[in-house]
Structure prediction request, 292 residues.
Amino acid sequence: MIKVSGLTKQYGNRTVVDDVSFALEPGTVTGFLGPNGAGKTTTMRVMTGLVPATSGTATVDGRPYAELPNPGAVVGTLIDASAVHPGRSGRTHLRLMADTIGVPSSRVDEALELVGLADAARRRVGGYSLGMRQRLGIAGALLPDPPVLIFDEPANGLDPEGIRWMRDLLRGHAARGGTVLLSSHLLGEVEHTVDRLLVIGSGRIVADGPVAELLGSEGTSVRAADVAGLARALEGARFHVQHGADGALVVEGAEPSAVGAVAAAAGIALTDLRPLQRGLEDLFFQLTAVAS
Ligand SMILES: Nc1ncnc2c1ncn2[C@@H]1O[C@H](COP(=O)(O)OP(=O)(O)OP(=O)(O)O)[C@@H](O)[C@H]1O
Prediction:
């Protein structure tokens, strides 16, 4: 299990990660969300031993990453994916990585296959597109088939098909009991991938919880031929009703089942009934605005 406790990182007298705490559970994909400069990469760099914390701790199975006997075999990381020698082929790059972490070189071709780079394996990385570099970075992280994956903005440079592919890959990893943390500043990219959201703004965690809970229902949108009668019935049942511009009624804070029950009791036939979800973008800006 990954545990981050009271993690703070200062550069000079600037605090870029401020008392951050969270735990990552096996079998879940956690989305680490925040705008540019919020502190996601810095948190991930501290978690993976790339930079020291100013205070606080980040541990993997109770030990700091750098103190694990073979950290690369436990945590697959995708951070700074562009840091690859441009003159090497993708295959050579992975072979060198495999040697370093003690993985048999037969695994290199498997990993290339897994990320869809088998055909480009012998080409120089300097000629790869951004998306291909991301895939190569992901292949490197997957080489030892590690239980934990920490990916910083993995969707960068991927097209919609690539994003879908990555979603399946990460969900599959979690379904096999793996632990996944992925960061993004684009919420739509991760909304359908993650089980849990960890939202960071200005170095602080502003929300941490299941996606369904954070995006919880805001109310119900309902339509009927007799709109005025429906509004009267709902107000009579003490619901707060607003008239939407499109002719629907918006019933704040009410579940569709409760709205349907009021309509049924009043003998009003409904033509449409649906929950209103708070948009992820709304939630995000609301939360991060509070933090800044
Ligand atoms: N080595 C460094 N020295 C000084 N400041 C740094 C350093 N690394 C990061 N920062 C600053 O720390 C803050 C957080 O940066 P970080 O890269 O962690 O944010 P992020 O949430 O990952 O953003 P992005 O989505 O843009 O990558 C930024 O203001 C950044 O300028």
